[in-house]
Amino acid sequence: MKLAFSTLGVPGLPVPEVLALATAHGYHGVELRAHPEEPVHTGLSPAERAETAALFKSAGVEVLGLGGYARVAAPGDDAPVLEEIRQLLQLAHDLGAPFVRVFPGADPDRPREESDTLAARRLGTAAEDASALGVRILLETHDSHRTGADAIRILGPVGHRQVGALWDVMHTWLGGEQPQQTYAALAPHLGYVQVKDIASAEDTTPLPLGEGVLPLTECVDVLSRQGWDGWLCWEYEKRWYEEAAPLAGLLGAGRERLLRLLGEAA
Predict the structure, then answer these.
(1) Model's pTM, two decimal places?
(2) For residues 39 and 127, what is the distance between their CA atoms, to the nearest angstrom?
(3) pLDDT tens digit sequence for 99-156
(4) pLDDT per residue over 151-194, tens digit each?
């Protein structure tokens, strides 16, 4: 498996400094948070996109994917959601990124079946753009659809190879799902896995990998037993928790922790 980290852990950090961290600590890739407050977002000009792609290529680091914020099950018209996804897909294509992350974001007061149908319809439509651009849309286990069982209610009906799943281990754990259950649900659709650690269900402040309660060992064991060889991406949510320790000082130990888990699971 290859290792990456998300720029959610280094808010606003310029791309050259992100790449310096990746190369210094032996990470193969970076997941870029695609948001206007970050250096990389859909408003970049063609020249800025080309420059960013060149920086990654020169550093020998891959752009794993874009962390977008489109909510495919949210109420409202389809057009704005589809346009947001199209812009993310185009940016990913221009940067050479294989994946774009989207959220479910369903209204909890709306019937579940309606939200699932809405999300599947939008993803099915967006899949055509994704296919044309050679990018895959990944629905993250998050918010209204935090488990694999939740996500598959959307992904199953879509049935398109350019639409898959992003497994966030915190959300599936918070949803009461065991790693083997999540993998069984998502395996045909799995793009990559976001790892992290927290103190408890009540305190989700990010911690160094291995210092919290999330079932990282079990997740890596399940993936290894099944011969899965994709990406593990450390999503350290520093952007939402200012009191959390800086990620830069944790990256080395985090990589060693993941390599140790992989070695023990082999």
Answers:
(1) 0.97
(2) 27
(3) 999 999 999 999 999 999 999 999 999 999 999 999 999 999 999 999 999 999 999 9
(4) 999 999 999 999 999 999 999 999 999 999 999 999 999 999 99
Structure tokens belonging to residue 148: 């694999």
Q: What's residue 36's pLDDT? A: 97
Contact call for residues 163 and 178 (beta carbons, < 8 A)? no
Largest CA distance in the chain: 49
Cβ burial 157-167 (10 Å sphere, 16+ → b, else e):
ebebebbbbbb
Q: How far apart are the C-alpha atoms of 91 and 77, rounded to whole Å? A: 23
Q: What is the secondary structure of the chain as a DSSP string?
A: -EEEEEGGGSTT--HHHHHHHHHHHT-SEEEEE-STTSSS-TT--HHHHHHHHHHHHHHT-EEEEEEEEEETT-SS-HHHHHHHHHHHHHHHHHHT-SEEEEE----TTS-HHHHHHHHHHHHHHHHHHHHHHT-EEEEESBTTB-SHHHHHHHHHHH--TTEEEEEEHHHHHHTT--HHHHHHHHGGGEEEEEE--BS-SS---B--TTSSSS-HHHHHHHHHHTT---EEEE---GGG-TTSPPGGGTHHHHHHHHHHHHHHH-
